[in-house]
Amino acid sequence: MHRVKSSGGRLLAVEEWGVPGGVPVLYTHGSPMSRLARYPDDSLFTDLNVRLITYDRPGFGESEAHRGRSVADAAADIEAIADELGLERFPLFGVSGGGPHALAFAALRPERVTRVATLASPAPVDAEGLEWGAGMMESNRRSSAAALRGREALVELFAQDDEEGQSPASLLPAAEQAVLARPEVRAMLGAAFAEAVRPGKDGWIDDEMALYGLPWGFDPAAISAPARVWHGELDTVIPVTHARWIAARVPAAELLADPEAGHAGHFAATPDILRWLLLG
User: Fold this and answer.
1) What percent of the chain has pLDDT over 70?
2) Fewer C-beta within 10 Å: the chain N or C terminus?
3) Domain count, the chain
4) In this protein, which residues make up the domain named AB hydrolase-1 (predicted)?
5) How do residues 134-190 score in pLDDT, each as one tens digit?
6) What does the pLDDT read at residue 121?
C-alpha cells in the first residue's frame, strides 16, 4: 500500500496487484468495500500481464474522509492517483457502487480513458424515465430513501441495522449466497469489508449519500470512450433496468445482460471484461 495526496491535501490509500510492470488497469470497488476488493484469484492479473490499481474511496480503510463528496469528486481522486503513478491514458472499471465512480472519471477526464466498464452498477436516483426502485431489494430501497432525506436519516438507519445485527451479507438475497459462500470469495470480501469499516462507518454513509442522496455531478452522455455495461438479469440488489438506462445514455456503450446471473455474477463476468479493457 502507498498513499497519494489528492485535492485539498487528503490522503488516498492505493494498492497494486498483479504484474508491477504490466498494463495498468484501475478498479473502483463496490460499497461498502475497500482497496482490498478485487477478483478473488490474483493469477488472473498475472496471466493477463495486468497491473491492477485499487484504492480506498474517502472514509474507507486508510483514505481520509471527504464529507459531502459527490460521485463526480472521484474524478479528481483518480486523476491524482494516475498522476502519482505516471499513467497518462488507461482503462478502468467499477463494480456495483464503484460503477458510477468509474463512469465519472470517464465523463470528466475523457482524454485519459481508453475504455471503461461497469458491472452491476446502479443508475442515479433521479434517472429520467427509470422506475429506480422497481424490483430492488428492500434494504437498498430503504437506504436510498433515507439518503434522500439527508445524512442524519442515513445515520439513524445504520444505527438501527446495527442494533438488529444486520451485516451486508445478511441483507443480500438468498440467490447471491452461493457465490458469497465460495471460500476464495468469502475470504476476499471478508478482508475487504473489515478494512473498509475499520475506521467506522462514516465512509460507507458518505458513499451512500453520494450514490443515492446527491446529484452525481456528471452526464453519462459525456463519455466518449468505448464502454461495456454488464449486468445480471436476476439481480435484485441493483435491477438490470439500471444497466439498460446507463447503456442507453453512454454513446459508445455495449450492454451485456446475462439472463442467468444475479448481482454476484460479476465475479464470473470479470475475466472477459478485463480482457476487453486490455484491447484499448
Assistant:
1) 96
2) N
3) 1
4) 24-267
5) 999 999 999 999 999 999 999 999 998 776 665 566 667 777 888 888 999 999 999
6) 98
Tell me the mean pLDDT in the region 56-81.
98
Q: Are 212 and 101 in contact (CB under 8 A)?
A: no
Sign of the alpha-carbon torsion through 139, 170, 94, 241: negative
What pTM value is reported for the model?
Answer: 0.96
216-240 residues labelled b (16+ CB within 10 A) or e (exposed): bbbebeebebbbbbbbbebbbbbbb
Provide the residue range defining the domain that includes 14. Answer: 2-278
Contact between 93 and 225 under an 8 Å Cβ cutoff? The reply is no
Specify whether the CB–CB gap between 93 and 24 falls below 8 A. no
Torsions phi, psi for 26 (to 5 deg)? -100, 140
User: Which runs of E-coded beta strand occur in 107-211?
Assistant: 113-119
Distances in Å between the Cα of 25 and the Cα atoms of 18, 90, 207 are 10, 6, 22
In whole angstroms, what separates CA 40 from the centre of its chain?
16
Grid coordinates representing 64 are 481520509
> Which single residue is written with the C-alpha cell 444475479?
262
Give residue for cell 472477459: 272
Strand order in the sheet with 23-28: 2-5, 11-18, 50-55, 23-28, 90-95, 113-119, 227-232, 253-258
Output the domain CATH number for residue 109: 3.40.50.1820
